[in-house]
User: Fold these one by one.
Assistant:
Number 1:
Amino acid sequence: MAVIWGVPYLFIKIAVEDLSPSAVVFGRTALAALLLLPIAAARGMLRPLLPQWRWLLVFAGVEVAGPFFLLTFAEQRISSSLTGLLVAAVPLMGVLFGRLVGLADPIDARRLTGLIVGVLGVGVLVGVDLHADSWVAVVAVLFAAAGYAIGPIVADQRLSGLPSLGVSAVAMAATAVAYLPFAVLTRPDDVGGALARSWWAVAVLGIVCSALAFLVFFALIAEVGPTRATVITYVNPAVALLLGVLILGEPLTVGLLVGFPLVLLGSALATRKVAAPERESAPVPA
């Protein structure tokens, strides 16, 4: 999961060279929906979703429609490396949101230290080598991170009993429908003249980073829970950084080298599972 979601930042950066953010989001989600919907329908996984259609739309908004657009918009202004590293703030936000709804452990001294260190790391990331017009992009990425932190909670609390393939398919389809008119309005004057690598980038985003990714994502939530599932962001920003530097030639700045380890350290401290207190009369579980 961490590798699959470390790759999109590279391909988003390539796609926005010729296509608008709305067109990129529409392309990747429409392709993912075309792949997932027939399979979900054939397996009878769509009808059980009807009673929860409102929560499905909420999930689609906070986990797909919002973050996909915000990240694509941001990469028109900042590097794919910085975008990926800022998303490392997801576990920190996951702890806060999880605590608000009673899913996370209490914020003790260790977790509070982790949150402070993580916020400091984000500050270092955005405080070095940014131009004035980059701050809007940074805020967009942080809002996207908030959506990624809320999405697993919604999935776990409201959609956990539903077939994950059906949920993923409907979320992609709903997002594609929502972005279709904007994609048409912002399409290139010469659609056929767009570079082939931009279209290939959208194809990878749709097939690998959307369709396949959400299947793995739901399996991960079922395995480790919604809050700890966000720990995938320990690794995927590093993948984004590596690809951005090696393939796109993006600069490896002091802010990236110092801020990213701080964010990871803060996330590790804030999300580490608290051991249950021992009781004299209770046997120690094997």
Number 2:
Amino acid sequence: MPDKSAIKMYIKRILDIESLLQRKSCFLFGPRQTGKSFLIRHTLRSAPIYNLLDPDVFLKLSYSPGRLKEELGPKDRFVVIDEIQKLPALLDLVHLLIEERGIRFLLTGSSARKLRRGGFNLLGGRVIEKHLHPFSFIELGREFNLSRALNNGLLPPIYLSDLPDEDLNAYVGTFLKEEIAAEGLTRNIPAFSRFLEVAALCNGQIINYAKIANDAQVARSTVQEYFGILRDTLIAHELPAWTRSRKRKAIGTAKIYLFDPGITRILQGRSQVNAGSPEYGHLFETFIFHELKTYCDYKGIDELFYWRSQSGFEVDFILAGKTAIEVKASKTIGQHDLKGLKALSDERLLKNYLLVCTEKTTRALEGITVLHWETFLNNLWNGKYI
């Protein structure tokens, strides 16, 4: 188990924002507490930082946006504006300073929803957009513990918390409800809270708007709007269906995954989970999704899917059109666990067919590689499967 002192150390993140800014300005979005501010402080030590959560900074720039232009000098090459969605009118001035002075801006926030919906200046092709995820296995290295990751989740302040359930409940209350209300994303917080619980129970499943609407006691159109809020705030991700199979017709409806195993567990109303339980297997799959999604976002890979045939064969993940990945938390894999991969391998469309599990020894079964999750993740981050 990781030493609790590790919470005080700086854990290097994979996302290199300084290299990104060498190319052009950047929007950096991510859910609360993924470590955006901490990353900035350790990476851009000399850059001016305007944190719009600071009331004094917010009032100064909202009253006189031109102060930004007056305060920045010729030596200010990189500039950070934290929580840009709180004062999107600054984007016109940012645009001007990019053009006139060549300043590279890092513009951070928990969501681009308010900016996009408000029709604000998103700076065209002058910026790149990146997402910061919770800790990954490869970032934590020796500090990683699977049980802790599944139960506590991977948000930096909560991963090594002494009171993880208390902190996770506070996160749900403060950031997933109050913040959404404060940003005006929805006015009906009780209905949104019911929806969150139902959505968490649908984690890893094909989206059925009608059923979710019935369970959450809201209209189907409201459920679609609420899912839009979760996607835009990066609390949930849609996993599209892979429909390129030929022999077996594929289902085309997307799945939904929440962004963090710990948040998922708390929203589902579950206590701490132990190996061998169905709940453990469910969160294990969510963790592997998090690693794949994080890898794809950081490496600029757009293709992450799942596959399910209309006859019921299913594979959890298809990566970059090359690798099929089935996830089982089992320590012993049998023939019945391979059915989906074997059905898809008949198509001969992919390069790799993997079953990721907790078995310690890598082995081959009828063209399918069974391997331990640590081996899989090390191979993934080393680029072996694309």
Number 3:
Amino acid sequence: MRGRYGGVPMHERVTRGRSADPTPEDPGPGRHCWVAGGVGDDGLKRPGLLAEWRQAGAGWEGRVVYVGLAGPGRWVLVEEWLPADRLTPA
């Protein structure tokens, strides 16, 4: 299945069964991504780190870490599972 931008969907980019030790050839499963609709959603996409994928009842979800706006001038580190359609490659 192709992603909405014509490329390979992000969940297909993360290779399963990689070594636990990063090397120049295998940097590990983490990938930079853009997060839409996260904590403190103000209509902007926030940079995030995609750590892993899982298949859920409604499709794929990515486990991401990003900085969200919890209140006026109050930023927090957020880790959560989000639907794949809210994540785009960076």
